[in-house]
Amino acid sequence: MQRIKLSQAAPGMVIARPVEASNGQVLCAKGTTLSESLLARLERLDITHITVEGRPIDDGRPQKTIEGELAELDQRFKGVMSNKMMAALKGVVQKHLKKRHERLAAEEAAEADRQAQGEAGG
Amino acid sequence: MPVDMARFRHKVENLDNLPTLPGVVTKLSAMVESPTISTAQVGEMIQADQVLSAKVLRLVNSAFFGFPGKIGTVTHALVLLGFNAVKGLVLTASVFDIMAGEMLGLWMHSLGVSVTSGVIGRRIGLKDPEEIQVAGLLHDIGKVVLKVEGPEYFEEVNQKVAATGLPFIEAEREVLGFDHTKIAEWLCQKWNLPASLRSPITLHHRPLAAREGAEATAVVHMADVLVRAVGFGSGGDVSVPVLEREVVKNLNLSLTAVEEILEHMDEEFIKAEDLIPSD
User: Can you name the CATH fold of A2-52?
Assistant: First the structure.
């Protein structure tokens, strides 16, 4: 998921986290697909940022490959591997990073599908 | 370069202002100017800013307000100080130079530790999870002060880290003879911060030495290790410090629990991104 400015949002994007008004009231549930009218409404209510599924906006942050992330992980834990607790912790973090990568890849694939369908229907 | 500890301490204690970040300050200024903002919202906004938190807590804990050493959270502090005092703080903070580059990494790291301390704290049922988030946010304040009050020392420490790969804290000890937790200790004393904050800020690298505030210290220690383990932000070096086995035991957390905490951290980090200035 990606946190983006409302000005960057477009119809077809899917809300990943509930959008709340400043008083805490939920304006938009998770899973809602954005439409022109919904975007206009959110703008009127002074919402500036939302979190959407996938990573539709190129925010200039290079997407790290899983190999890159794991290599950096190795580097970070280099000095403490003789400690059993730390070796176990590294294992947990490694598992977590892989899981996160798989989830992001799945979200991106779903986002690509949605866009393709949108183009086909639009 | 030998460091005259007494002189440096004097410099640190007379620090009138610390740098803060434009993103947060701008947001807060906008919020403060709106007539419909609630105290709780302002509290949340300030709590996420390391420097503003420090300013607010320092003020409230001074003898002047009559609550020495008792106020640990910003929201509580807000209730006591009032909205106008907060406005004054925001305006004061906004005239300062913004730290970028190295400090931005530290800001992200501190946000990460704040968020993670909250996740762990809530999980183990801590009474005041907001307070532990404040501790997490402030845990490396000594490094900010080192840079502001001793830029040549800060530079030397960074060079040592780059040249030797030593953890930042060890490089500090070699260059200065003491580290950022000592600097933080001077500040905590000067500002009369309660043990629930003072202990995690000064002892997060030595959690087993904590007495009063030991649980909070254990949480921030673990949060610091986890945030470094996942590589969120930068504490000044790339090494992960050793997680004290005794801490994990005392907090009663299994490796499965850690897995769940890491997941929860990811979700919370996304929320925190709002507080990192972007172009």
Answer: Molybdopterin biosynthesis moea protein, domain 2 (3.90.105)
